[in-house]
Amino acid sequence: MFENLIERLESSFKLIKGQGRITEVNISETIKDIRKALLDADVSYKIAKTFCDEVKQKALGQDVLKAVRPEQMMVKIVHDELALLMGSEASDINLKGNPGIVLVSGLQGSGKTTFSAKLALHTKSKRGMRTLLVAADVYRPAAIDQLKVLGEQVGVEVYSEEGVKDPISIAKNAVKKARSEGYSLIIIDTAGRLAVDREMMDEISAIKHAVNPTETLFVVDAMTGQDAVETARAFNEVLDFDGVVLTKMDGDTRGGAALSIKAVVNKPIKFISSGEKMEALDVFHPKRIADRILGMGDVVSLVEKAQEQYDEEEARRLHKKMVRNQFNLDDFYQQIQQIKKMGNIKDLASMLPGVGKAIKDVDIDNSSFKGVEAIILSMTPYERENPSVLNGSRRKRVAAGSGTSLEEVNRLLKQFEGTRKMMKNFSSNATSQRIIKKKRR
Question: Can you list the pairs that 124-128 forms with residues at least 24 positions away whose Cβ atoms lie under 8 Å?
């Protein structure tokens, strides 16, 4: 996401590098380059020009501190303006009601059904809500079946009416069921429609009028760029939706939709979705996205993802094993599974400051763990618990059983030993520091 824009902006800031202060003369080329970068990212000319005018005005009005270089000041100004352009703060979704009702709308193929299931998992796991998914797409073949499959994956019931072709009736009946059976939230997945199809647009408007949702979301494919922005404008005129969801953010997108949509429809982006994994749904934080665009990483989001998988009791158990040097290959395998649950490895790594650019052309995904997992699972339980018994003949057997080479097995065991030593030293040092602190008290 935003890879090209990140590179272009980085080169723009270099144009002012080495200057003693910001002046109209030395800033003009930088501003011109930033505008080109935004246009290449599929931001409309009007928004790009307004953005650059604001940056220039604020840059020329800034007193640059002696401790701060002009290019650093420019980075901060652009960062703040990017965050402002995208909405400044994260915008929460309104789920209050009896039940709360989320109406999901959007174009055909924008990813509404997948998003509906992701949102159901999000509200269930992070907010503890009893959620009901509603299959109101009565036109697309297999749409109801798709939602049922996804509902089963996330452990959420799906309401549908076989043979019924009236989505308004289905939505109203789903609300009745939710109220009578104590559901706290329903998510209505509607059919995709084109903004130019007046009959279909009237239908989604009628669904909204019939159920009076607490939240109406417009789902749009981020890869459609400026088309996404124009579609959002057309849908908003009919639906007056509450927020936007950008899907397929892991694709080859230039980021124009994320940067433009708030300015055009004055509605916040509430979620961004990437990949097919049901956990791959993130609240949209403008400041964090601005951090990523400027190559600063997104450590806060990375920590939050880690905390979601964090098990305090498991952490204590592992700490004891580390201190006693009992950390084994079973534990190593479990840690890999925890990391994989956090999301795509390349996306996670790019959240670290400076890493995104370094791994841009490196092919990293969760399949990178397959060889390691195969090697560990080809060992006996005794071998995993006692890695020191893995002599030459055992290693050859493990290599054959896992479809890898002896060299790969040896490399993994060497890496494991290095990891175990590092973890033992870290745990021992942390324990020593706690003992010293207690004595001082």
Answer: 124/154, 124/155, 124/156, 127/95
**Strands 281-283 vs 269-273: parallel, antiparallel or unpaired:** antiparallel
Strands 157-159 and 131-136: parallel
State both tokens at 359. Answer: 């791994």
What does the pLDDT look like over 218-237, one tens digit per residue?
998 887 777 788 888 889 99
Could you tell me which residues come within 8 angstroms of residue 87 by beta carbon, excluding any fewer than 6 positions away?
Answer: 262, 268, 269, 284, 286
Per the CB < 8 A criterion, the answer to whether 185 and 131 are in contact is: yes
Q: Using CA atoms, how far apart are residues 436 and 117, in angstroms rounded to an integer?
A: 50
Model confidence pLDDT, tens digit, residues 160-210? 998 889 999 999 999 999 999 999 999 999 998 777 688 888 999 999 999
C-beta of residue 344 within 8 angstroms of C-beta of residue 250: yes
Encoding tokens for residue 298? 């997104």
In the block, residue with structure tokens 């953005």: 51
Whole-angstrom distance, CA of residue 275 vs CA of residue 338: 18
Strands 185-190 and 157-159: unpaired
Evaluate whether 229 touches 256 at the Cβ level (below 8 Å): yes
Residues 13, 16, 17, 18: what is their CA dihedral angle, to the nearest 10 degrees?
-170
Q: How far apart are CA 267 and CA 331, in angstroms?
A: 46
Per the model's pLDDT, the better-predicted residue between 245 and 430 turns out to be: 245
| CA nearest to 77, candidates 36, 16, 20 | 16
Helix, strand or coil, per DSSP, at residue 177: helix
Q: Which amino acid is at 59?
A: A
The answer to whether 34 and 55 have CB atoms below 8 angstroms apart is yes
Q: Is 295 helix (H, G, I), strand (E, B) or coil?
A: coil
Compute and round to an integer the Cα radius of gyration of the chain: 26
How many C-beta atoms lie closer than 10 Å to residue 6's C-beta? 21
Nearest to 246, CA basis, from 230, 229, 264, 233: 229
As a dihedral over the C-alpha atoms of residue 112, residue 113, residue 119, residue 125, rounded to 10 degrees, the angle is -160
Helix axes 3-14, 24-40, angle to 10 degrees: 170
| Residues making up the chain, counted from first to last | 441
Residue-wise burial string across 342-381, b where 16 or more C-beta atoms lie within 10 A, e elsewhere: bbbbbbbbbbeeeebeeeeeeeeebeebebbebbbebbee
* Domains annotated on the chain, with CATH: 3-85 (1.20.120.140), 100-293 (3.40.50.300), 307-440 (1.10.260.30)
**Element at 103 (helix H, strand E):** strand 100-106
Name the residue type at position 19: Q
CB atoms under 10 Å from CB of 284, counted, come to 22
